Each structure stands twice: as C-alpha cells, then as structure tokens.
Amino acid sequence: MKWILAILVIGLFITPFFYVQTNKKMYANKVTNYLLNEQHYKKNEIKSVKGIWGIKLPSFYTIVVFENEPYVEYIYFAHNNVMQFSHNVTEEGKQLGITESDLKNIAAK
C-alpha cells in the first residue's frame, strides 16, 4: 500500500513537468513547420526556435531568432493557427542601433 501511495505522489509531482515540457516542444515544432512549409524559410535561415511556458496568458508561446537578425526575438503564438505576435530587440541590438525599420523578418499585418 505504501508503494502505491508513493507512486501516486511521485506521479502527481512529475505530471505537470511532463505536460509543460511536451507542450513547449509541440509549440516549437508547430512554429518550425509553419516557418519551413508555409513561410518557405530554409532551415539554415533559422537560428533557434524555443517553446516557452510563461505566467501570462497565453501560457505557451514560441521565440524565434533568425540567422540574419540575431539580435531580434520574434514571438509566435501557435494555439490554433500560427501567427507572429510581436518582437523584441535585445539590449545588444539596441546598443547596435537596430530599430523597427531595420527588421527583415517581421510579418506583414
């Protein structure tokens, strides 16, 4: 009986961890597929795609960095349809003088 209880308690603690990690990976994969198949980027044009679990709503989103803009993080939502939501120029990018008019991968609105 103690073993069953111990397994249940452990399961209760690790289930949220797996839920978060799985969703982060799913969102990153969905955005990657969107960029490659619908926006026709090449793999070598994408520096990184990272699924994020945040406190604010929506709780899951994805940050994309492109090779030609290493100082800009593009935020994508992928709940139903994938969409570029916003972007952030890193502090290093701001110091280099990068402005919104310099952005190359911003989605047309």
Structure overview:
The protein has one domain (2-102). The radius of gyration is 18 Å and the shape is elongated. The chain has 109 residues and is of the alpha+beta class. The chain is built from two helices and four strands, in the order H-E-E-E-E-H. Strands 1-2-3-4 form a four-stranded antiparallel β-sheet. The model has no long low-confidence stretch (mean pLDDT 90).
Radius of gyration: 18 Å
Order of helices and strands: HEEEEH
Q: How many domains is the backbone divided into?
A: 1
Percent of sequence in beta strands: 25-35%
Main β-sheet, spatial strand arrangement: 1-2-3-4
Mean pLDDT: 90
Q: Can you tell me the overall shape?
A: elongated
- Quaternary state reads single chain
The biggest beta sheet reads:
4 strands, antiparallel
Total helical segments: 2
Structural class: alpha+beta
End-to-end separation: 59 Å
Q: How many beta-strand segments?
A: 4
Task: Outline the fold blueprint.
Elements: H1 2-38, E1 46-53, E2 60-66, E3 69-77, E4 83-89, H2 91-95
Antiparallel strand pairs: 1-2, 2-3, 3-4
Provide a compact summary of the structure.
The chain has 109 residues and is of the alpha+beta class. 39% of the residues lie in helices and 28% in strands.
